[in-house]
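User: Need the bound-state model for nicotinamide-adenine-dinucleotide:
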Amino acid sequence: MSTAVVRNVTIQTGHLIGGAWVSSPETFETRSPMDWSTVLAEVSRGDATTADAAVAAAQDGFVAWSAYTPSERAEVLRRLADLIDARNDDIALVETIDMGFRHESMRERLVARGALNFRTYADIIERSGPAGEAEQWDAKNTSHTVIRMPAGPAVVITPWNAPFMLATWKLAPALAAGNSVLFKPAEWSPLSAALLAELTVEAGFPPGAFNLVQGIGSEVGAALVADDRVRRISFTGSPETARHIGKAAAENLVPFTAELGGKGPLVVFADSDLDLAVKRAAEQYEDSGQVCLAGTRLLVEESIADEFRAALEAATAAHVLGDPLDDATSVAPVVHPDHLDSIDGFVRRAEAAGDNIIRGGNKVDGSMHFELTLIEPASNDSEIVQREVFGPVLTFQTFADEAEAVALANSTSYGLSALIFTGSQERAERVGRAVRAGIIWVNTFLVRDLEAPFGGTGLSGIGREGGRYALEFHSDLKTLIIADGSTE
Ligand code: NAD
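Assistant: Bound-state model below.
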């Protein structure tokens, strides 16, 4: 059993397989964007043998966990939620240091919502029948009962941004459905996953119901998704990786969901509350834009474009780039030097292609920050408009009327989210329905009841998370038909 200590918090650096911590001889390093010179932890680097052992344990775990009634499962899920709340400070601290998002938002928003995810799914399965019945009716002298069967071991693979909260979105429905899980977090931010795994042991899941496998995506991740004993794959990350995983899922005929990148429009009509629109637009820089849901394409009605741009510049200039543990910091650092290079590459290519860099555009010397950047593209076809940067880079374009706004909003291959600012309820309905995306926020941002579906269209993904939608994905439905004895 090997551990690392981050600011007095002891963290397991191995895998949790079948209820026991095991280490691999090979490791990978995780470092903090707050101080890249220091190695935070050497984490076990799982391989094909690790994946094989973990899937075998998950099969055993599935037998035990799927036999729990929905209320028994709900009790364990609620216990886990309480344990997360009790360790909120440690989880938020470790995750901030490991991946760099601001501590304040980790503590108050992301980790707290992680606990709420488990509570929400406890509530949802308790509302179902005591034995997982989804529906029941009588017809043709028979009773029809539709039963949700747990599907089997589920692989859950997550990205490095907001890793704790994102993982709970996927793990809570899988576990609530009665599946065992094989959780593979991203190698750039693996530590909060270990704290979660520790809490699952305390919460009382049977051994093998919750397995944590650490390692590199193309190694142990690929081995997990290729295993034909796995019955569901739930993935969040980039479209490139989703293509690999989709091929493995197709090979074994396993359903998979993919929550992928975004290139959301943020549309501002002249009739909107300009202060609110500007505030929300400037917020897209927080966490250095490493948020899939961010509205990174600013589309502003021509008549207010100059006024909007001046106000946005003032709001952007007020941002504080700094230490994510400091509550005064409003913009978090970039997670990894390779990602800084990737953001820089996008901006350099935009510059070379003739896009106009209105503000920022460079790495900040001596830190892991990239300047808050605004670019006026030469054309809507520019790469900087069409591809996800996942950094603090917004584009600025104008539109003449509602039809052009909708056309521009729908002009990329992505379709994850959109933000619309307008003072008109009729326009909110009209434009909200016309824009193609999995979630549309009008005059607000990031609010979502956990029972509502979440996911993307186009390059932004396949399938939906949230509420009963994810529960359905993790279940197989069975129709049980029993004659009432009045006929043969
Ligand atoms: P990524 O695709 O590089 O990696 C995601 C995960 O996949 C990691 O755990 C990685 O180890 C694993 N992986 C990599 N190759 C694999 C393989 N061949 N087989 C199995 N697993 C493999 O993505 P990333 O850079 O970690 O995350 C950033 C991306 O995630 C962005 O595109 C962002 O928009 C997207 N994202 C989407 C959502 C959403 O909910 N839609 C949320 C957050 C992030």
